User: Fold this.
Amino acid sequence: MEKLMVSEKLDENKKIMSQLLPVQESFDIIQRDLVIGNKKSCYYFIDGFTKDESMQKIMDKFFGIKEEDMPDNAEQFTQECLSYVEIEVLSDYNSILKNLLSGVTCLFIDGYHQSIAIDCRTYPARSVDEPEKDKSLRGSRDGFVETIVFNTALIRRRIRDEHLIMEMHEIGKSSKTDVVLCYMSDRVDKELLKNVKSRLEKIDVDDLRMNQQSLAEALFKRKWYNPFPKFKFTERPDTTAACLMEGKITILVDNSPSALILPTSIYDMIEEANDHYFPPITNVYLKISRGIITFLTIFLVPFFLLLCQNPQWIPTWLEFITIKDPVYVPLIFQILILELAIDGLRLAALNTPSMLSTPLSVIAGIVMGEFSVKSGWFSSEVMLYMAFVSVANYTQPNFELGYALKFMRLALLVLTAIFDWVGFLLGCILVVCSICFNKTLSGRSYLNIKLN
Assistant:
């Protein structure tokens, strides 16, 4: 499609802008006419994206320009009459619309066949506080926000190296979302980088309505039957910087307060920020502890169910795990009901006002605990193991991985309940295969094995 170029006549430019933009219908698209050096001028901007103080200083400069000092073209005007830093001269309306809808102010002057883009925009942003989910005991207390420029600055602050590359891409026909590809040019895997760039360029979607998640789905189509996540997400700039220094690739998406990191393995998924801030022996201990707890979240309850179905296998020193009280509801149904109830409590906590969360948690704990056991719905042993599992899910920072482990545990429970020890064995094989054959974007499995 042929580009529509800027005209020298201001009235014609205003007419074209009125056709391309709903200036009259949208209250936040502002058009203002003014005279600069005895020449008619007009500029457009988005209300809420423009810094008032900066525009006021620029306007004061405009009103001080005399007719004899007025340059002949836009290039000279930017050099002689504008002291602002971020300025660009645009010749076609595609570039003008892209910049204007991103928050840049576009100025038209009668007699100039180009538009002057003045980048004095500002985005609504919150402070760079520490993420609520991924906290650190000794690390920095800052975190990513929804403004992509702030996020790149947080990384640049930590890596002052000329090899740190940040490539800007635009994805989405309607949303035109800014996506930044970050990598260390001297450390990154060139083949992986080429693969990621190719995938980004081939993405053909109308919008990234869910920001980073929409991009992840467009980059790599996941198989519905394998719930393990394909990417690692982090809201911490220090973790992102550490991954970049290891040669990994990071993708930042505007309006998303987290970074997408690849390639990824199971070891990356269970890693957290505290692992980088402690001595090696403490670091190793934390990783081993997290690995053991992750293992138990999958196999503890199914193994308990298997032993209860085969009490003759229980050795004398483990007889205390057997259920002494009468069982009114089959164990498998007790466990499945509690799995659903725990998720219900979790969803309720997300939507509960903060002032009511504590008393409602106490009420839920009493009802789900003491009263449910006394009523005969649940056994105290089942309540104990499910409580351990629900708390253990939060020992690793990845939310998606927690649900993937939950689905593996549910499959293992159902198979064990139906086929006894054969089902437990089949479930274990299913878990191992789901991890080993979970192919990520880099072509490697979770165990970092190359899959062709």
Notes: Residues 399-436 form the longest helix (38 residues). The chain has a mean pLDDT of 85. The beta strands are 29-36, 39-46, 87-90, 105-109, 115-118, 164-171, 177-184, 232-234, 249-253, 259-262.
